[in-house]
User: What shape does this take?
Amino acid sequence: MDKPVLIGFSDVAPHLIKMQKEILPLHQGMQVYLSTLNPIVYFRWGKHTTNRELAKIHIPPVGKTYTICFNPVLDSVGIPAEVLMSFLWHEYVHIYKPPFKEGDRWINHYPEFHEVERRDPNYYFSNRWIRENL
Assistant: This one.
């Protein structure tokens, strides 16, 4: 089985640094939580472009090592940096507002999750760009 190519830190670092400086302070609770948890986050490219998921985070049952997997369709110079930052923000919100089990179903996106997600200043731009271009 082929291993996915890891996204180089230099590819993601500028967006992550910008997100940490500009977006995380917009939600103080999330910033404090992440600094307390101090998660280890890896990034990688997925293998398939047919899946409708453009990014996904693998949340460990125990521990603090997470992997954010990006759909290869995002590996393009035409993707605005704001869109990549929105994907990062969305996946980091999953760390702050993790899924929970309700009966037999896992609930990934719920009102409190969406409330934090919408604090991304690129939220509306990114969603419109994704609808129009992907």
